[in-house]
Amino acid sequence: MRYTPNARGRSGFTLIEVMVALVIFNIGLLALAAGAALLVRQGGLVQRLDAARLAAASRVARLRAGGCPATQQGADSAQPGLLERWQVTAPDSVTRAIDDSVEIVVPAEEQASDCTPSSAARP
Prior knowledge:
Blueprint: H1 15-65, E1 72-76, E2 82-89, E3 97-105, E4 118-121
Antiparallel strand pairs: 1-2, 2-3, 3-4
């Protein structure tokens, strides 16, 4: 296909073509910004989940090291944003069952409109 210049002998883009290209470019930039914001939010959630897993694993290790009494229960909120509850039960004379749950409490200013006030994580 041969290139044919317009009637005046000029070549280039029309104003409409440039405007359409700018709109498409802006939509792409907005999509990238939204994706980056989602990644930042997910990064914060991953950090909270890791802290919850570490708190639960630490509690179980402390209970095992302490000889694991027949029954025991408690709650702890020593780490900011985490509420931990545990219970040790004795189903029989040989075994002990440890139930440990950690609730992640998200501050109100970090909550999105579609999020629940808190979410629980179990290791």
